[in-house]
Design goal:
Elements: E1 34-38, H1 56-61, E2 66-70, H2 72-75, E3 86-90, E4 93-98, E5 103-104, H3 106-119, E6 125-128, E7 140-144, E8 154-156, H4 159-167, E9 173-175, H5 182-204, H6 207-216, H7 218-224, H8 226-237, H9 244-258, H10 265-276, H11 285-299, H12 306-319, H13 322-325
Parallel strand pairs: 1-2, 1-6, 3-7, 6-9
Antiparallel strand pairs: 3-4, 4-5, 7-8
Helix pairs in contact: 3-4, 5-9, 6-8, 7-10, 8-9, 10-11
């Protein structure tokens, strides 16, 4: 059941909802990611046809994040309901027009995007409406100049979505449509919750906070990018005696780069085999065989990663393995 506020979202100056507005409180120790989200995804009936879109994943997510809802089309003065707009492209570049009225809203949209995105606090990602000519991060129909509503010539990002991708190139940016794919959704959640934990460490701003963050995320980073993990380890050692602000900034860039692509199946298997070593002398032959069979089925893409991970989690609890219990790899985001 969703408990999100359905009230009016922020205008051009982005506002983070108060702690209780974005959903029920988290359990102690959890950090709430801050996500910019298209307002039509359950917050307000602001679609061009006056509708609101209900999304089950957004409802579930609402208990664990703080949303910054926005509707760029409403913010530039287009009413609800309104004649639809679309993107046209030609020798003069891309423009955003309302075919029914002939109105060109390109400049208004670009000005809003610049103002809104500049005003944002530190955020952890973006969840935008698929195929929207304003919000869509991709797969938006593009028409030739004066082409009306038929004969789309290409696809690409919407105007707001494109500016987000330009200004936040290594941040998680997804549409609600793509997040119906489990692997894409899992990757998105890992990135936004890891970003939130790093933001919290950066707010503390101490060497100890960075050392602790890096240690708790070692297995997660190992699964994503071992080259970046090594580079990040050198940063944490800080041989150049960088000040805290520069150190966290450089580490954050490395972190976003490391998490930019989903981990390979083989990388996850390597991490899980490494984890098995913590228990191998305490397991029966049958338990080991069951786990190795789960890895084989995962490698063959017959079961999700969560199956072998949950086997390891059961052993963590059974044997009280504190080091692995502290690794975010085994609980990268709330269930």
């Amino acid at each position: 059941m969703s408990t999100r506020s359905r009230g009016t979202g922020p205008g051009p100056r982005a506002r983070i909802p108060a702690s209780g507005e974005g959903g029920v409180g988290l359990s102690e120790g959890e950090v709430k990611p801050i996500l910019v989200i298209s307002k039509c995804l359950g917050f307000e009936a602001c679609r061009w046809n006056g509708e609101i879109i209900s999304d089950h994943f957004v409802d579930l997510l609402s208990s664990h994040v703080r949303f910054i809802p926005v509707c760029p089309e409403v913010e530039i003065g287009l009413g609800v309901p309104r004649d639809p707009i679309h993107i046209e492209s030609g020798k003069g570049g891309r423009r955003l027009v309302q075919p029914a009225t002939g109105r060109d809203v390109t400049r208004e949209m670009l000005d809003f995007c610049a103002s809104f995105l500049h005003s944002l606090p530190e955020v952890d990602g973006f969840l935008l409406k698929a195929r929207s000519p304003s919000c869509g991060p991709g797969d938006v129909k593009i028409f030739p100049y004066g082409g009306g509503e038929s004969g789309a010539m290409d696809k690409g990002p919407g105007f707001f979505g494109e500016e987000v991708l330009k200004r936040f190139p290594l941040f998680p940016v997804e549409s609600e449509g793509r997040l119906k794919n489990f692997r894409i959704r899992e990757h998105f959640l890992v990135r936004v919750f890891t970003s939130a934990r790093f933001r919290e460490a950066a707010e503390r701003g101490t060497a100890g906070a960075l050392v602790d963050f890096h240690a708790r995320h070692k297995f997660l980073l190992m699964s994503y990018n071992q080259t970046e993990l090594k580079a990040m380890g050198r940063l944490v050692a800080n041989p150049d005696r960088l000040d805290a602000r520069e150190l966290f900034a450089l580490y954050g860039e490395r972190l976003r780069k490391a998490l930019s692509k989903p981990p390979r199946y083989t990388s996850n298997i390597n991490v899980l085999m490494h984890s098995l070593g913590y228990f191998s002398d305490r397991l029966t032959a049958g338990e080991k065989a069951h786990f190795l069979d789960a890895l084989r089925r995962y490698r063959e893409k017959r079961i999700p990663l969560s199956v072998p991970v949950e086997i390891i989690n059961s052993w963590i609890n059974r044997f009280g393995e504190e080091y692995l219990a502290g690794q975010t790899y085994f609980r990268p985001y709330p269930e």
